[in-house]
TrEMBL record:
Region (Disordered): 152-180
Biased composition (Low complexity): 164-180
Protein name as catalogued: Uncharacterized protein
Keyword list, A-Z: Coiled coil
Coiled-coil features, chain-numbered ranges: 5-43
Protein's organism: Eimeria praecox
Superkingdom of this protein's organism: Eukaryota
Amino acid sequence: MLSSAERLRHLQQQLRQQQQLMQQQQQQQLEQQQQQRQQQQQQQLMTLVTPAEETALRSCLQQNAKMETAAAATAAAAIAAAATAAAATAAATAEPGKRHSLAPATTQLQQLQQQLQQQQQQQTPATLQLDGFASTVRTAAAAAAAAMTAAAAAAAPGVPRLPQQQQQQQQEQQQQQQQQGIKKLEALLV
């Protein structure tokens, strides 16, 4: 025979199993009810929206997608332009013998600008373009950072360059432009 403690444990185990089974059944019922409500809502919407209204809605969504695409292209182009300006300034203030180290970054940024302009002219839906814009902007930012790093490494004491205050102001302005462009594009990608 089972002792009182064993019988109690056995009853507790059965109770837990029954509770789990009831919870599973309730969860399944809730899921079924939710699916039924969603189907009913979809059917009601289908009966409420006429073909003409559906066409107008689709057109509105397409216009919104084009606007988002154009905004993303503008932000990306602004970043690429700021990065190009930074590379040009860095090349002008570096030693003549070391300017070649900035050429790859400058060329890459120019190619990115052309690519962004082509994407902006296409005006395809934003859902198909935003991932590409994000990748392009990251590449542009990386190229700009490489250009400025190379310029800093190339600069040496005694080389003619812009006054320190003016140079610092330009760098701060370029950094602000880049950050604003990145924030705008990130907001579109959320």
